[in-house]
Amino acid sequence: MFFSKKIKVSRVWNIAYPIIIGNLAQNLLIFADTAFLGRIDEIALGASALGGIFYLAAIMLGMGFSIGVQVIIARRYGEEQYQDIGRVLQHALLFVVPFALLLFLLLRHSGHDILAFLIKSPKVSEATNLFFNDRIWGILFAFVNYICQAFFIGIARTKIISMVTCIIVAVNVLLDWLMIFGHWGFEAMGIRGAAIASVAAEGVATLIYLAYIYRNKKFGIYRIFKKVSYSASLMLQIIKISMPASIQNFISVASWFTFFIMIEKIGEQELAISNIGRSLYAIFLLPVWGFASAVNSLVSYSIGCRKPLLIFPILRTVIILTIICVLALELISFVFSGFIISIYTNIPELNEATFGIMPTICISALFFAVGFICFNTVSGTGNTHISLIIEIFTTLCYVAVVVLAVDFWHWGIVYVWLADGIYGIFMMIAAMIYLLSGKWIGKKV
To answer: DSSP readout, 307-324?
Structure first.
């Protein structure tokens, strides 16, 4: 019965492909930073990975919060309660702006001490702090951008996301070239230049998103810029749905930060290799984020339309599309592996070692992709506290595997990367057990 209905591939694709294009552009930011810094030395390459993931862990609090907001907006859109969408967006911004400022002050004060405590190599620690001290200025822009994206995805108007991301990629790559190496009269700032370029690009995105929402007459139905009628009950509802997802996303990226901290224990070269591997991994997972947002939004919309059992054909369709796209990207990467890796670095030892971990990364990416789609289906039901429980369980398993692999089993870098695949398998099993239980049916958000 659960798998008897069909969902149109075009419906999934129309929501997902602008986000995939947007994520392609977003990953070009990582690609550009890694390629530019790979021309400096191993220390800069490794430090940018640690500093970047530490920053990512912080802004995941905002991204996780936006997932809850997206679920609510999609549900209201399915229920045709359009004016409520504007109120949800207003209240979300009222929450994330002061939250982002508070988090900025906290990390500005204590981030250096946290990184110095965790990182073994003094050179890597110093370079990581140089990067992070400038990168942290983008946190407010990132939080606002995530809320704007939640609005666009929730109402299934995602093309603006890909357009904006393409613009900020162009800005970031240009500023990388100018600031890292010092062209056109700019000072050559090395790793600091990469951080400042990324902050500037995020600021540009914020301005475009807000201007687009303000000037688009079609959004008048949502009454976004009307006087805010503050509702404590609505704010509490948003927080109740969003905070578990926020904490869950933070835990997820914090676990990946732990992964890189453990890799740094193996050696500086292994850390540099893993930074290149992280960029390749992100390329393989390009379709996943788009399809994950699509399944999240479509599931919430279907429940809002009182068609809850549609989530299973939706899930099946999205998993098939995800596997096809990930496998295609992995095949292309293998065919052109020599050329792709040479773009990241001109150091022969790094080139050879990176090629050695590619098969492991491909396997892990495939298992993670399926697990993540199943996980986002759970989030789409509005049961974000269950998502948090699943995330805690899978993260504990993931961290345990990584620690055992490095400190006790003494695995090489090639096999340590298998931990991400194990993470995806546990996530898939836990999510499917919950979905098949049917306990999510009738959940109000």
So the answer is: -GGGHHHHHHHHHHHHHH
Taking the CA of residue 304 as centre, how many other CA atoms within 13 Å lie in the half-sphere pointing to its CB? 23
Q: What is the C-alpha to C-alpha distance for residues 198 and 33, in angstroms, rounded to an integer?
A: 9
**Could you say which DSSP state residue 4 is in?**
S
8 Å CB contact between 148 and 210:
yes
| Contact predicate 369/326, CB 8 Å | yes
Distance CA 293, CA 295 (A): 6
Asked whether 305 and 83 are in contact (CB, 8 A), the reply is no
**Token duo for residue 309:** 């059992």
Q: Which of 255, 243, 330 is nearest to 286 (CA)?
A: 330
How far apart CA 69 and CA 88 sit, in angstroms, is 7
Please give the average per-residue pLDDT across 235-254, as a whole number: 82
Query: Tens of pLDDT along 132-166?
Result: 888 999 999 999 999 998 898 888 787 888 788 88
Region 6-31: mean pLDDT is 66
Measure the CA–CA gap between 50 and 62, rounded to whole angstroms.
19
Read off the tokens for 58.
Answer: 């912080």
Cα–Cα dist 210/204, whole Å: 10
* Structure tokens belonging to residue 17: 């492909």
